[in-house]
Design goal:
Number of domains: 2
CATH architecture of the largest domain: Orthogonal Bundle
Distance between the termini: 40 Å
Number of strands: 0
CATH superfamily of the largest domain: RNA polymerase sigma factor, region 2, helix turn helix motif
Shape: globular
Length: about 170
């Protein structure tokens, strides 16, 4: 994946949409945990992007810019709703597939992880999802969240540390 939209003049919004729509929608679904909410946030993200697109500088990192809009839309939605949002982790099974027992165990693990990620503080959750599930660099995470690379590293570090503690505690109780 490239970090910026191919070198096109800032007039080709359609190319930007074609390049990043699937990635942004997947990100919002993981953040929101609800397809309908994610779809609404997705539309709002690209509507806001369209309105501001003509004012972008030519050296703008379009990917980070869209992720920042999407993240801000999610955070605003969450603040306005004041309700818990689960992170949706989609498991993809390839090949012949696992046995029913293994599939059930995997589903339990994914559900436990989903719940643990959902309990992370908002910035840690967003940083963790961007870094670990979308493969962002720390520079990209910092651009999306509006902080420094050091803050992005710290958010991811604390998220991973918290998840490890929580999952280790669950293992001890089972």
């Amino acid at each position: 994946m490239t970090n910026t939209c191919p070198a096109e003049p800032p007039g080709d919004f359609g190319l930007l949409v074609d390049t990043y729509q699937t990635e942004i929608l997947r990100y919002l679904r993981r953040l929101a945990g609800d397809a309908a909410t994610a779809d609404d946030l997705f539309q709002d993200t690209f509507l806001r992007a369209f309105k501001a697109f003509s004012q972008l500088r030519s050296d703008t990192n379009h990917r980070a810019w869209l992720y920042r809009i999407a993240t801000n839309r999610f955070l605003n939605h969450r603040r306005s709703r004041r309700r818990g949002i689960e992170v949706a982790l989609v498991s993809e099974v390839r090949g012949r597939g696992p046995s029913p027992a293994a599939a059930h165990e995997r589903a339990e693990v994914v559900d436990t992880l989903r719940q643990a990620i959902a309990r992370l503080p908002k910035r840690q959750r967003a940083a963790f999802i961007q870094r670990q599930l979308h493969g962002f660099s720390y520079r990209e995470v910092s651009a999306v969240l509006g902080g420094t690379e050091t803050a992005a590293r710290a958010n991811v570090y604390h998220a991973v540390r918290r998840l490890r503690r929580e999952l280790a505690a669950l293992r001890r109780t089972t």
